[in-house]
Design a protein that fits this description.
Layout (H helix, E strand, L loop, with lengths): L6 E2 L2 E2 L10 E3 L3 H25 L5 H8 L3 H32 L3 H6 L8 H14 L13 H25 L1 H4 L5 H32 L9 H4 L1 E3 H7 L1 H7 L16 E2 L4 H26 L5
Antiparallel strand pairs: 1-2, 3-4, 3-5
Amino acid sequence: MKARNVYFNGVALDAAERGRGPYLWRFTVAQRLLHAGLMVAFFALAFTGLPLRFSCVVWAPKLMALWGGPRVAGLVHRWAGGVVLACFAAYLGMAVAALARARDRRALLWGPDSIVLQPRDFREFWATLRWAVGRGPKPRYGRYSYRERFNYLMVFLGLGVIALTGLLLWFPEFFGRFLPGVVFNLATIVHSYQVMLLAALIVAYHFFDVHLRATKFPLDGVMFTGRATLGYMEEEHPLVAERLGDLAAAAPSSRAVQDRVAPPPPRWLEVTSTTLGLLFLALGLLLVVLGLWDALC
């Protein structure tokens, strides 16, 4: 099954479209919607919060003016914060429901398919370092590599801190009834610096690992389309690909069920995912430039 994505010099721009077929479902609809909501909210929060964080830089007033002034920027910032809180709550609800339904809760949390960082990930990290310098074979990753689990943990914890401090700053009258004033001063500092740390992690680490590595450049749209080719899975997650066995006779499933054979993404979704992927990459690089500009203060 040949990939039909957007091509450049004969190579699919989307790394998840490269390699031999068939396509496989990797992410569910709920996972993709949560990712989309967080992604849009993250950039809205970043570009409305940066002019306040770096108000002394020459670009800050211009960026604030693009939003229509501080009042509009503040409203957008709060609405985006609400989206983050909603996504965070929805994810926690999905996690609790998965635990309640699981036959083996230990495997769900600590098994090979878990997204939770585990001792094996530190061994995998060391093996990857050895492979990088030619001292050992390339590690064979399962559903999630140590990089994905580490990134998940940092984003999960970071969003939790941002959500908590953001709530305190959003509703100071309510929380001020039973919390001392120093808490709000601390919340202001922690909220600002945690956002910067999370932005640095997402742009410098997540973007590089997911999109800008040599084997994936210029982007990996698997989270947009929810599917990837078998060749992609053999390269990135070989243990999962091996476990699936022979898929030659498997019928494609229109439902996004992990590891099931999937139909090729429709053309409109391919073009949309590629366009949005490149757009958000450009916005991420712009964040880096604006953040580095802080040295002028």
